[in-house]
Specification:
Structural class: alpha/beta
Strand content: 5-15%
Number of strands: 14
CATH architecture of the largest domain: 3-Layer(aba) Sandwich
CATH superfamily of the largest domain: NAD(P)-binding Rossmann-like Domain
Bound molecules: nicotinamide-adenine-dinucleotide
CATH topology of the largest domain: Rossmann fold
Largest sheet: 6 strands, parallel
Length: 448
């Protein structure tokens, strides 16, 4: 059993802290946001994440996890201290490390015996050097705090399972002692462990996220070619993805990536490369493709409706992806802003994120069901692929709309079925419904 402190109790800090408690460690989660800590101490959780509420409850009851606003309390009670604070983008795209710096200073001022300080936040390569500089300048006792890196790969929406059954655990260390401590910490988790130097560990996180973003932008670029030549991107992706060297995941054409990680990590990685004398033009292109993709659905909607001015548009899905209420860099935010700028009225539905969206757009209409979003709408725009949208009664959906225009930004619906039901249906990189024949072309055949 280890005594662990998690500084920053957001998505990553809360989930990883709770999971460390679940596997038997004693955890103290710290956050400077008192309202968050008060909420957690009252038995509630500040984030929407499947399973987290029960897991927090269970581990609080077992006294394996507690919450405080005091870094001093966390540092004094723990041997391993994680930095899990936010590292948001600066206006120039680089990572803002001011929160990392602030908590490093506090850790240094409260550490009186050996502590392992672990970067869990996503940070640019060589951040550990900066942390070390601050520690040397601030610590009571030189070298009393050792730095390590342990980047986090969990995905919002499946964060608990991702943490407990990860594809791999990456640790960057500079001593056998640190390696041993982190191996013991993770001993209950069965996964390959990559043990490396700190710079490489830091780099792995940005390299991995940027690669996934690249894959999404690649299939979105292919979708553009498909639209121009009448090919079907979902079949192309299927044919590509069955190649084990390529793999199926992250080959879904659509509105593109959003969320709190990919956009900021890609732009930070471009900046890191630039600072080290390398022009990462490949990633710059991926970023541009993603930005263009986001507004493509509006172009399709505008083409189908002549103009958006005076039209009512139902928006299905607001969160940046299903099973979360996270709106950070969610495509829906840009899309709604643009719909309003072009004179449309918006009726929005999301199973989890509507409350948060109200803070950004208080004056649009929020409804309680997808059907209500469609009612009286001239067009329906599917932005987030919540599974329940795939189970909608399409005949009923069409009957409540003012005009049966559907733009499917996530390729959830079947074009042929939508055409048969009488929708004017547009998706990403797939032939428009009207062009499909009764017997669609065969799916990719797998010959064994
Ligand atoms: P978040 O904004 O949800 O949480 C960060 C928390 O840190 C906030 O509650 C904030 O109040 C707190 N904080 C900031 N400065 C503090 C300080 N000095 N002392 C105490 N608390 C402080 O962020 P997140 O989504 O949990 O991300 C945290 C880090 O993990 C980021 O670097 C992110 O890139 C990385 N990451 C995020 C995910 C994800 O899916 N969200 C996945 C992997 C990695």
């Amino acid at each position: 059993m280890k005594n662990v402190c998690m500084i920053g109790t957001g998505y990553v800090g809360l989930v990883t802290g709770t999971c460390f408690a679940e596997i038997g460690h004693r955890v103290i989660c710290v956050d400077k946001d008192k309202s968050k800590i008060d909420l957690l101490n009252s038995g509630q959780v500040p984030i929407y994440e499947p399973g987290i509420r029960n897991l927090v409850k269970k581990n609080r009851a077992a006294k394996r996890i507690r919450f405080t606003t005091s870094i001093q309390e966390g540092v004094e009670a723990s041997d391993i201290i994680f930095i899990a604070v936010n590292t948001p983008p600066l206006p120039d795209g680089g990572a803002d490390l001011s929160f990392v710096e602030a908590c490093t200073r506090e850790v240094a001022s409260h550490a009186y015996k050996y502590k392992l300080l672990v970067e869990k936040s996503t940070v640019p390569v060589q951040t550990s050097n900066r942390i070390n500089q601050t520690l040397s300048a601030m610590s009571k006792n030189r070298n009393i705090v050792e730095v390590a890196s342990n980047p986090e790969f969990l995905r919002e929406g499946s964060a608990i399972a991702d943490f407990l059954k990860p594809d791999r655990i990456v640790i960057g260390v500079q001593s056998i002692r640190a390696e041993k401590m982190l191996r013991e910490l993770y001993s209950k988790i069965k996964a390959p462990m990559v043990v490396t130097d700190i710079n490489s560990a830091e780099l792995i996180k940005h390299a991995a996220n940027s690669f996934l973003a690249l894959k999404i932008s690649y299939i979105n670029a292919i979708s553009q070619i498909c639209e121009r030549v009448g090919a079907d991107v979902s079949r192309v992706a299927e044919g590509m993805g069955l190649d084990a060297r390529i793999g199926k995941s992250f080959l879904n054409a659509g509105i593109g990536y959003g969320g709190s990680c990919f956009p900021k990590d890609v732009s930070a990685f471009i900046k890191i490369a630039e600072a080290n004398g390398y022009d990462f033009s490949l990633l710059k292109s991926a970023e541009k493709i993603n930005n263009d993709q986001r507004l493509l659905v509006l172009k399709k909607l505008e083409q189908a409706l002549w103009t958006l001015k005076g039209k009512t548009i139902g928006v299905l899905g607001l969160a940046f992806k299903p099973n979360t209420d996270d709106l950070r860099n969610a495509p829906a935010v840009d899309i709604i802003r643009e719909l309003l700028a072009r004179g449309a009225a918006v009726k929005a539905f999301d199973p989890a994120a509507a409350e948060k969206m109200k803070a950004l757009f208080p004056n649009i209409e929020y409804v309680d069901s997808p059907m209500d979003a469609a009612k009286g709408a001239h067009g329906l725009l599917l932005v987030t692929e919540w599974p329940e949208f795939g189970r909608l009664n399409l005949s009923k959906l069409k009957s409540v709309m003012a005009s049966p225009v559907v733009v499917d930004g996530r390729n959830m619906f079947d074009p042929l079925e939508m055409a048969k039901k009488g929708f004017i249906y547009h998706s990403i990189g797939r032939p428009v419904g009207a062009r499909l024949e009764e017997n669609p072309r065969p799916r990719v055949k797998v010959l064994s």
